[in-house]
Amino acid sequence: MLKVRPERSPRERILTLESMNPQVKAVEYAVRGPIVLKAGEIELELQRGIKKPFTEVIRANIGDAQAMGQQPITFLRQVMALCTYPNLLDSPSFPEDAKKRARRILQACGGNSLGSYSASQGVNCIREDVAAYITRRDGGVPADPDNIYLTTGASDGISGWRSDGLLDMTSWLQTILKILVSGGGKSRTGVMIPIPQYPLYSAVISELDAIQVNYYLDEDNCWALNVNELRRAVQEAKDHCDPKVLCIINPGNPTGQVQSRKCIEDVIHFAWEEKLFLLADEVYQDNVYSPDCRFHSFKKVLYEMGPEYSNNVELASFHSTSKGYMGECGYRGGYMEVINLHPEIKGQLVKLLSVRLCPPVSGQAAMDIVVNPPVPGEESFENESVEKESVLGNLAKKAKLTEDLFNQVPGIHCNPLQGAMYAFPRIFLPAKAVEAAQAHKMAPDMFYCMKLLEETGICVVPGSGFGQREGTYHFRMTILPPVEKLKTVLQKVKDFHIKFLEKYA
Amino acid sequence: MLKVRPERSPRERILTLESMNPQVKAVEYAVRGPIVLKAGEIELELQRGIKKPFTEVIRANIGDAQAMGQQPITFLRQVMALCTYPNLLDSPSFPEDAKKRARRILQACGGNSLGSYSASQGVNCIREDVAAYITRRDGGVPADPDNIYLTTGASDGISGWRSDGLLDMTSWLQTILKILVSGGGKSRTGVMIPIPQYPLYSAVISELDAIQVNYYLDEDNCWALNVNELRRAVQEAKDHCDPKVLCIINPGNPTGQVQSRKCIEDVIHFAWEEKLFLLADEVYQDNVYSPDCRFHSFKKVLYEMGPEYSNNVELASFHSTSKGYMGECGYRGGYMEVINLHPEIKGQLVKLLSVRLCPPVSGQAAMDIVVNPPVPGEESFENESVEKESVLGNLAKKAKLTEDLFNQVPGIHCNPLQGAMYAFPRIFLPAKAVEAAQAHKMAPDMFYCMKLLEETGICVVPGSGFGQREGTYHFRMTILPPVEKLKTVLQKVKDFHIKFLEKYA
Lengths: 505, 505
Hints:
CATH architecture of the largest domain in chain A: 3-Layer(aba) Sandwich
CATH superfamily of the largest domain in chain A: Type I PLP-dependent aspartate aminotransferase-like (Major domain)
Largest sheet of chain A: 7 strands, mixed
Strand content of chain A: 5-15%
Largest interface: A-B, 114 and 115 residues
Oligomer: homodimer
Radius of gyration of chain A: 23 Å
Helix content of chain A: 40-55%
CATH topology of the largest domain in chain A: Aspartate Aminotransferase, domain 2
CATH class of the largest domain in chain A: Alpha Beta
Distance between the termini of chain A: 47 Å
Mean pLDDT of chain A: 88
């Protein structure tokens, strides 16, 4: 690489750590992942030929399906290619149903081109397709395109650590929370989030100078959400802030639990009682593996609970192109649906979204294919179904495989991976390991993950980055690697763990 | 559309105009464009068959090239299609040079797919291509890929009003300013911006609670930047804030002036003297039309001024896929180059960028083609050159045409459109029109533009949205419509203006 900075020492800079915005430093610490930085250093060392007990770093820290070898869904890429280079619409090598969708999307774009701006809320026909998808998903509960907002990377930030280990702050969460946050001192807005949480939440909350209100998921009960715990948390919070928002992640990240319908009803009733605005992060709605689990959207349950709730409870829910079986993280497509939002606030929201972001049109188009896949009778339906089944079937196998193998390891307990794409096993660390960690000024599970990385090349994220009950330790690992590779990874973790226990016994 | 909100009146909402974040309301007013909202209403009325003195709304308010009929550059779309659907790499109907670039981009993507995350600073090989482009552009002045940050829509927000009339706040400006803003009271960070400005700047500044410091461009001198005016502005500002940042837009938006090399030298010397961090918005660097004007990058001039400057002056400059001859607004690709940034701050920047945004990989790929077009000897060079020449040649014609026609109208004065893609003519309004506007509680040029829209369907943006000297009135109009259409638009404006003058004589 070229060297720009000349050798002679410059005069003092205007922008230094001392002169910079202190708030930025604060935010950064909330989301920084030293493990993943270390992984980058090790990769460089491997490239430089430095010998290690392993030949590659396996980035099991991030939910990046295609980076792990998952093939893109053919139909989605065909439509995207047709939209990108419309000359292909004359090509016989593309199926008619893909061309039909591409034409429809292009007709809705300025100048029939992905290269034009779209309205800030998103391309109209795509918002209509999203609404139709939601209506189908929720068994006929109507969805209004006016309530749909297409966003940039609605879920990338929610879906996993970035490849560089830093969280990608998502537009929707910042946008909706920015509108919600107000007051000062004891009337500062309190935002309830699950622990373990996805650190995006704590980062946005601290950046917006809101108050984080923790509620703990029940690890002994497959990470279920217990409404009594919500009550405890909100009561305690009222002493020092004004709890106004309740964040739900279902299926859970990092914990992978899938909430029962009953649980969702209880949560909605609680939100109604306590006048809390519901934020439902539902980006893993297609990623449900346990045969005895089903995804229920908050929207659907809300409507089934009757008008007292469906007319009153304010809800924003989120989905994206990054997860499901498409796994198109790079397109950064996503949507937000709002329910019972005050009309004036909808105006504010559209304005703020417009100010904050412009959804890339290619990402919007990708979102359209996610919600509008081939249907029976269409040329591509068969192939699409095979590809979909293969991705989701494999994920289900790997979820079970991971749970089983972890639970064979002494000192590791792993709840069932009911959904999403991560395992979040609990690791029982000997006192000596905890002392060693303290000597290194590290959280014990950070110490453990760092050793795991250094000795095996496997990069996972310590539970301390997500939050966990005092004295418990975990790590988050994606199940995205191909089955054979995943088996190797799990075996390596097992061997490492046993050695680790011996060393610090 | 489906109706979701039931009829029965809901209980009081949690989120209302009263309870929401007051800061959001404040920001919104800085960027809201009522004219463009009105344009939307009129379009709906036309769709409903309501008769108007015109058949379509012409959105001359936004720099949206392809929406105005500009065809995408074939090569760029070919490479993008190949990256999107790699099966096409086997197709004989795509040129080898396009395939070569697509392969190179894909090899740099996780899993060889645009569907994977990239590093938060952007794909390495694309940052290298950007650095090589800058080095070529600046006649050999070296650029370091480490100083390049690929961003989301580095310039969409800078390039024009959104189609819905709201500004798209851009990531780079928020990110770099967020790091720079600090202090309170009189030590609050002051940010110098040109007047007329692109309202994105005032919006970001107010949102970050920094202090806006205006310097006026010299309309009598083709909107030139005069360093004495910078001196006046910074001296006055020091009474109430700490001026730390100087924003430059070159070529100018909305004013279209192209800064001379001498002017840039003076600005850099001033920034050096006053210890100001330079933000150079150079997204129109390819859009220079006046034969006696040339684009000089701040980076190049900085280096030619010698080590005292090139080692010390801190600079961030910006470019994007949206302008130039590619006009790919929808891809939201862009980059920022930083010079003399403190190494620690570069770390902070990469962290903040990672937190703030994830550049969509398709936008990064599009940026790569913008900076890495076909070269002589490559298969696509000829066609690319023809397409490029046609776009830029037409823009130059239209720039001259617009200036000439406006200056034929009594009561309109239009400076030469040296660059960018807008005219910002001054309109001399009769006292009676000003009174009528005041009676309608509108800025006089807002009143004028509203009437223009209602009577002709032509949507332009009043100068009051950009800032202008007290008692002067302007509007901004894009020159992007095809020549024949542009002539019609200009004729309609002329006829309207003459009638307007008669009416309020």
